[in-house]
Amino acid sequence: MTTEPTAYPGLPIGxxxxxxxxxxxxxxxxxxxxxxxxxxxVGQPLDALISDRDHRGAVxxxxxxxxxxxxxxxxxxxxxxxxxxxxxxxxxxxxxAWQYLAYVEPGDQEESLTYELALARQRWAGxxxxxxxxxxxxxHEGTILQHNLRFFELMRxxxxxxxxxxxxxxxGRALGPLLPRAFDELQxxxxxxxxxxxxxxxxxxxxxxxEGRSLRLPLRGRIETLLLVRDLSEQRQIAxxxxxxxxxxxxxxxxxxxxxxxxxxxxxxxxxVSYRPLQRVGGDVYDVTVLADGTxxxxxxDATGHGVTAALSTMLIKSEYDAVKEGGxxxxxxxxxxxxxxxxxxxxxxxxxxxxxxxxAPDRSLVRYACGGHPGPMLVTETGVVELSEGGGFLGAQAxxxxxxxxxxxxxxxxxxxxxxGLVEARNAAGAQFGEERLLAAIGEADRRGRRINANVxxxxxxxxxxxxxxxxxxxxxxxxxxxxxx
Amino acid sequence: xTELRHRFALHFDWVKHRRVIAGREVILHCHHYNSRIQxxxxxxxxxxxxxxxxxxxxxxxxxHVLNALxxxxxxxxxxxxxxxxxxxxxxxxxxxxxxxxxxVTAASSHFVEGWNAGFAGRTEPVCTLTEGYLAGAHLAVTGxxxxxxxxxxxxSGAAACVFERAAGPRAAIxxxxxxxxxxxxxxxxxxxxxxxxxxxKIVSALVAMPIHGDAEGLIPAFGVYLASTPAxxxxxxxxxxxxxxxxxxxxxxxxxxLVSDAETCALNTFRGIMSSPEWDALVAPxxxxxxxxxxxxxxxxxxxxxxxxxxxxHTPGATLRIESVNGYEAAGYRELRGTAAAPQxxxxxxxxxxMMGLVYGTGTMADRFGxxxxxEAACICTGAESCxxxxxxx
Lengths: 487, 394
Fold this sequence. Notes:
The complex is a heterodimer. Chain A is α+β, with helices and mostly antiparallel strands. Chain A has helices at 29-35, 55-66, 113-130, 149-155, 184-192, 232-260, 308-324, 331-346, 435-449, 453-465, and strands at 14-19, 24-27, 72-81, 84-96, 99-106, 134-139, 144-147, 196-203, 206-217, 221-231, 269-276, 284-290, 296-303, 353-360, 366-372, 378-381, 384-387, 405-409, 415-419, 474-481.
């Protein structure tokens, strides 16, 4: 057994003695104790101890050994010693022209500074790798110390022939000469050593924002500048695209409003419509028409979904409804006819909707109404508010569907209200729905107090949901005799 | 010069997958590999890396330039051919009009551009290969043995690189001593073809591409600077580097660095190729699954004159086995040194790991370096019928 005296008593730093070919000639007691291994290491080349999994460490050591002209080689490596892989810090120095010493210190215990530094490096590398922003560190002279892939991609450094610089060509290079004139302000900021700054640069059709942050050490002051680089061009393109979409939606909303407001209040009746689409355009549609015999026909429908697709469905529904509404048939037959037209022509588009038709008789004494999966109409009389029958299935699903129809006398009626389910299904912060009870109560309150029903219902709804976001289109259509007065 | 260009016409040997220009097998490598090999040799302590590079270039290009000359060529024509070959290979533009006074200049240089694109600053002249080229060309053109040294270089800001004939006698430039070996590579049909990648179509397209020096004698393509360099040059510099480092007990370190240089080259060069319009047009339409990118890269490499190799096993993201039937390193070592006790294909070993790192790694090229480790399980140099490489995640 060949041993050397312990180099640093009390410290976990083992020593390997190497000959002029970096072959191990001695292993000291501390190395044996801290890392394992012993005489079997003697005669082995130093690099033979490096784990196969530490490719970078092996290359780093190979590079440093082939270039060694004196000084200290200081590396972290994974060695295989005593049958185990160990993460170590190794410092190698020449003791003489024919002998080297490798000081090896375990770095895989959590209390070890080597371990902490290695961990910090890995964390930093992880942050750099995953950042969507370009990151570059430059020293006080403007030399690039470190950068991430995003920085490299954003800056697109090229030679005069269009050849990309490699990432390794950046580290250690002065940033200034790599930058075109557009970056003059950045260069000036770096030269002055400004603490924190933001600079915008227009270059090659892009807008880059560079944010600089100084990194300081006690007593030394500013040592490095951290630059974050963002490509605002993408954000600008997104904003421009959003603006176009918004303008299109605004126009679509105008179209929809125009389509739905093309109606006049029938003689002797007042119609109040409140329409709150979830988005700029919605999937609810309504209509009030006076038929040839004086019947006032109310129509309300709710297409599945919301937004642009549902809005386009409403155009289709309205168009087909307009073709059947004055066909001389009752509410149920009219719903059936509407269903036939939609399923025959648009089955593949899967235009599904609920609907309800309410006919107010010419003498205003009777209503006939039919439902296709839609909430039933509500009737306000002198005795209170009642919800009328509902039933039937969706329209647009399949041909040949029939829909239930009812009729009821409405002597002394005060209002007829049609809604879409978005109103009763609106929820408060606790997740509870506004519900039919509250709706009926709000209608009744408005009627008793002589308030306009729509305004009162929506006021009660808004107070109930408070800050909760709307989740569906809401439509409220109220019809009342014109002799009704508000307070 | 235009009328003499036919002497540099490319011949592609489909059996051996070799590119031949003016009678010499040339290898397409990029500035990444060339500058890194140069950096590895010249930065090594205790050996004269510049001498290794220069002497290899002298011997190789003395023969190569001679191949391009014909009996009856006037001296001016011979020098024009020497400069023309240099430019055609992508090394840069030599002005040989002052050669009679012992002075040659270069307005452009693959080595300057390549070094600047790959490393952060050098002030010492970098055109070591050119020093050897000029000495070899001088021998071929005039029969005289002289030496050239670069006395000014564009890398340090000079307007042009300047090469001046060194005074005094010097040793003779030895020919490249090779023993021709009888070797027949395994046929491509012995290997399973990839499901979606048409390797022959890719190789044909690349062989048909005019990859030679432009008006500046440079080949900027696929985001890199390419150059066609005789295989003998690479083999001589690598073999001699390892031999001289072995004398210092650092043979394994030298080999490791050569592998590392090739891995870095593969990461950067194939990244450039995969980002190129040529890849988009030719290879991208063939890609169906993620592994196809790897097969595409292998097919491209088979057009570069490195030899031909084929994937024999591949688990995407995990392992690769690839077999080279005619690598220039193995064939060259056999011709130059005979059989070896251990595998000698460091470039292919590094490239195999680099290709996997490029296709399946993440982050910068520096982050991807070392993601995969490679080994050469069998080598033509040791008597095996082919070279087999195994790559796995490190």
